[in-house]
Amino acid sequence: MDMLIHVLYVEDSERDAELVRARLAEGGIANDVVRVVTHDDYICALEKGSFDLILADYTLPQFSGITALAIAHQRCPGTPFIFVSGTLEEEVANECFQHGATDYVSKDHLEKLIPSIKQALEKTKKQDPVNDEI
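The structure corresponding to this sequence follows.
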């Protein structure tokens, strides 16, 4: 049975975004993915939509993934935030966790994305028992 989630994805590569969309579909997660590239588009998307999950690349041309994480914590606290990146080293990943990232998935190991998302959404559901839609 597919599960529907609304995803905000901060990613500058269309190819990488398509790979993630395909992985979500393969994993039984029917999704509505809104992809943004710029800081302004990210802020606008957060203001317009209610997202179940935020995915973000760590290295972006116009702003950083860590900045996106900080903004998410201010504007939509409690929304799981998972880095999907090919450039994140272990030391930097640990720093991201210290700043409140939910998880990190390497673009080289997208098979870990679905379990990571399901775990993050389940954790969020347990923290908010009113939300039974996930």
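The two ends are 12 Å apart (CA to CA).
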